[in-house]
């Protein structure tokens, strides 16, 4: 019984992560400029946030869902502002040479920043929890009265691994083309990515009107 639920979780996590949005743009850009690991770690931040929202929906924590939905305007404001910040930072970013003696330290700092940036961005998207609530309700999971916590836990683990597998696939495929990009090209990757992320941020803020 648990195996089909786990597979359902994999499919849900993969399908929710797959649509290209600001997180996808960040993952692609960071893979090209910093390497596959940076891109994948960025995706893991989003996958962790997916698991958090999946847990809220899967375990029937409706009071948390209601709390977040009632504050969706504030979440959009925070998310949109953060996107603008990331977009501007990305647009102005300069690529670091792997020959720089400080590169290993810079890379470790980037990994931490990359993880938490996408984690926060995903958490500030109120549509995520609505998506999970709707999908889990359709599967008959998420009622605290059912006591089926093992199934909910199995589903959430599947969601996390499904989402992670998408980011692993995306960073791996994009990484195959990384060597074709020279320093000048990477500068344009930063600029184009920055503009796209800024547009997402403006769209998120305009949705408040």
Can you give the mean pLDDT? 82
Helix content: over 70%
Overall domain count: 1
Structural class: mainly alpha
What can you tell me about this protein's structure?
This protein is an all-alpha fold and 209 residues long. The chain has one domain. 80% of the residues lie in helices and 0% in strands. It has nine helices and no strands. Helix 3 (36-58) packs antiparallel against helix 8 and helix 5 (72-92) packs antiparallel against helix 6. The radius of gyration is 18 Å and the shape is globular. The N and C termini lie far apart (46 Å). Residues 97-106 have low confidence and may be disordered.
SSE order and pairing:
Layout: H1 2-17, H2 22-34, H3 36-58, H4 62-70, H5 72-92, H6 103-123, H7 126-138, H8 149-175, H9 183-206
Q: TL;DR?
A:
The protein has 209 residues and is mainly α. The protein has nine helices and no strands. 42% of the residues are buried.
Which properties best describe this structure?
single chain, 209 residues, mainly alpha, 80% helix
């Amino acid at each position: 019984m648990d195996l089909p639920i786990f597979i359902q979780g994999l499919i849900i996590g993969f399908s929710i992560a797959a649509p290209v949005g600001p997180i996808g743009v960040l993952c692609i850009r960071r893979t090209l400029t910093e390497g596959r690991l940076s891109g994948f770690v960025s995706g893991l931040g989003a996958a962790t946030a997916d698991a958090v929202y999946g847990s809220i929906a899967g375990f029937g924590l409706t009071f948390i869902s209601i709390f977040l939905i009632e504050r969706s305007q504030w979440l959009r404001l925070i998310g949109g502002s953060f996107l603008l910040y990331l977009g501007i930072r990305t647009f102005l970013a300069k690529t670091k040479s792997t020959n720089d003696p400080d590169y290993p330290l810079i890379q470790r700092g980037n990994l931490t920043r990359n993880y938490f940036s996408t984690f926060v961005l995903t958490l500030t998207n109120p549509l995520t929890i609505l998506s999970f609530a709707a999908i889990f309700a359709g599967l008959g999971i998420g009622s605290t009265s059912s006591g089926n916590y093992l199934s909910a836990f199995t589903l959430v683990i599947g969601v996390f691994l499904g989402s992670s597998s998408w980011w692993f696939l995306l960073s791996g495929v994009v990484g195959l083309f990384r060597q074709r990009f020279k320093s000048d090209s990477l500068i344009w990757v930063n600029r184009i990515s920055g503009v796209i992320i800024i547009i997402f941020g403006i769209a998120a803020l305009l949705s408040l009107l």
